[in-house]
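Q: Given only this backbone (510 positions), what sequence would you predict?
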């Protein structure tokens, strides 16, 4: 049996069902990255917390996933790809149920961390098992189906999350995961046993793992609570910053001297990988932070429902589907650096376009940058694998792919916290400037003539100032985002030419 290729152990019908199961599992995990974005105001209102605190629901999931990704290779070798996939899926479903049952901020954050820890290995494991299910001549189509779910998840997530939050309850954005995970677990055990990987006992860098959790946890807690604690005016924030800094330095020294590090830092000796992965982190962080901030602004300041805010946000992924085949065909014919850099600069132009939004903008004015942005996304994501993994040695591909995904996920979590903090600060500055520029006597006279009471007049003026301050602050963030994207494109241009796609082993990429 061991001499028979894994894909020959399944019938064509079993292969099809197995492929659908793995694609569905990947879809539900990717969906969960964005389904909560438009529901943050609903969750915050229901739990009696601020919208800023509500974003912990997003960042806690991303950080937990990032921490778990470096462990995926070791876990797969220790327990086998099938068991890791099935138990990760079961844990994802269990924590989804607990997220839906949460009644406090602490409970939902803990459960989202559990979701992230269980969901982290599912994307790479679904890819690994797909490659074992299908013969080489069918893997292109299988991976195409897998990639479609990766693009569809972010597109459908905001719409589904918005519709459920508006018409049912935010709890159901988590409950809908449960029956899907049950189906995937049962189907996995029924179909994938013949293609499971062999197991072996491998050493694990426990100290490195502990240091990784310590410094990332300290950093993310500092970023999440800093805006509510006067930043470095609070000794707690100073202490967390010191812990994060010292923990990071010790982590780097420890990992650089280990034979079996939890994160293989040696791949950074390849300049192509280093330039590419930092560009990816900056760009993905800027992109992800925008799809967190835009729905919040639309709902809190513009009066949009969660469904409508989700539709505006989802246009990017929808239009990305139309240009994905073109980007795939150009791969190998056009320098990957040129494709990626041009795509990132296009994203920067869309940020500049958003920086001209105002409170009188209609639906299609807001949707236009999202639609245009989507056309460039495949020209960024698809060649990036060639750009980064093409720079490392073949035996380093798995480590490089894991590190790439780790930094991308951390980039999205850190950028979300920084953008929301910067937006809040910009709003406060804009509020002060606008309050000093308006003519309250004239406004009060007009409102008084319309029959408003003195209390209503004060509240109306304050609401108008808050609304304008929010959009001015958001425009400022979009301009900063554009500069970050230009810096990201510069890093890509500076990187060395990658190997041709045929010489790059992308099987470990995720």
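A: Predicted residues:
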């Amino acid at each position: 049996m061991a001499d028979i290729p894994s894909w020959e152990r399944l019938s064509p019908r079993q292969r099809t069902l197995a492929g659908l199961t793995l694609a569905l599992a990947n879809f539900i995990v990717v969906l969960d990255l964005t389904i909560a974005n438009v529901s943050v105001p609903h969750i915050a209102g229901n739990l009696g917390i601020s919208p800023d605190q509500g974003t912990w629901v997003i960042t806690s999931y991303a950080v937990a996933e990032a921490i778990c990704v470096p462990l995926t290779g070791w876990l797969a070798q220790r327990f086998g790809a099938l068991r890791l996939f099935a138990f990760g899926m079961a844990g994802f479903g269990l924590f989804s149920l607990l997220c839906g049952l949460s009644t406090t901020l602490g409970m939902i954050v803990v459960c989202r961390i559990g979701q992230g820890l269980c969901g982290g290995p599912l994307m790479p494991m679904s890819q690994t098992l797909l490659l074992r299910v299908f013969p080489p001549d069918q893997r292109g189509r299988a991976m195409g189906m897998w990639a479609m779910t990766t693009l569809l998840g972010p597109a459908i997530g905001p719409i589904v999350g918005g519709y459920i939050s508006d018409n049912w309850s935010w709890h159901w954005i988590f409950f809908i995961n449960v029956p899907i995970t049950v189906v995937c677990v049962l189907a996995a055990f029924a179909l994938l046993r013949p293609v499971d990987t062999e197991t072996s006992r491998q050493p694990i860098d426990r100290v490195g793992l502990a240091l990784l959790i310590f410094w990332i946890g300290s950093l993310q807690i500092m970023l999440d609570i800093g805006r509510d604690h006067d930043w470095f005016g609070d000794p707690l924030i100073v202490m967390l910053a010191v812990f994060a800094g010292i923990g990071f330095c010790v982590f780097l020294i420890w990992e650089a001297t280990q034979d079996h590090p939890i994160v293989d830092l040696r791949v950074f000796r390849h300049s192509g990988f280093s330039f590419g992965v930092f560009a990816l982190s900056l760009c993905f962080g800027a992109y992800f932070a925008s799809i967190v901030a835009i729905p919040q602004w639309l709902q809190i300041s513009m009066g949009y429902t969660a469904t409508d805010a989700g539709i505006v946000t989802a246009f990017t992924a929808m239009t990305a589907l139309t240009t994905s085949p073109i980007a795939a065909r150009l791969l190998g014919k056009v320098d990957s650096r040129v494709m990626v850099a041009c795509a990132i600069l296009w994203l920067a132009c869309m940020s500049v376009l958003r920086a001209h939004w105002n409170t009188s903008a209609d639906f299609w004015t807001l949707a236009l940058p999202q639609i245009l942005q989507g056309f460039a996304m495949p020209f960024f994501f698809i060649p990036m694998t060639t750009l980064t993994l093409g720079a490392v040695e073949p035996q380093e591909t798995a480590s490089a792919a894991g590190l790439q995904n780790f930094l991308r996920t951390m980039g999205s979590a850190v950028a979300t916290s920084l953008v929301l903090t910067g937006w809040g600060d910009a709003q406060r500055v804009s509020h002060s400037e606008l309050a000093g520029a308006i003519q309250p006597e004239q406004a009060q006279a007009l409102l008084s003539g319309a029959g408003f009471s003195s209390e209503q007049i004060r509240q109306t003026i304050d609401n108008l100032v808050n609304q304008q301050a929010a959009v001015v602050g958001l425009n400022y963030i979009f301009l900063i985002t554009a500069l970050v994207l230009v810096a990201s494109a510069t890093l890509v241009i500076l990187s060395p030419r990658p190997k041709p796609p045929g010489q790059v082993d992308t099987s470990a990429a995720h």
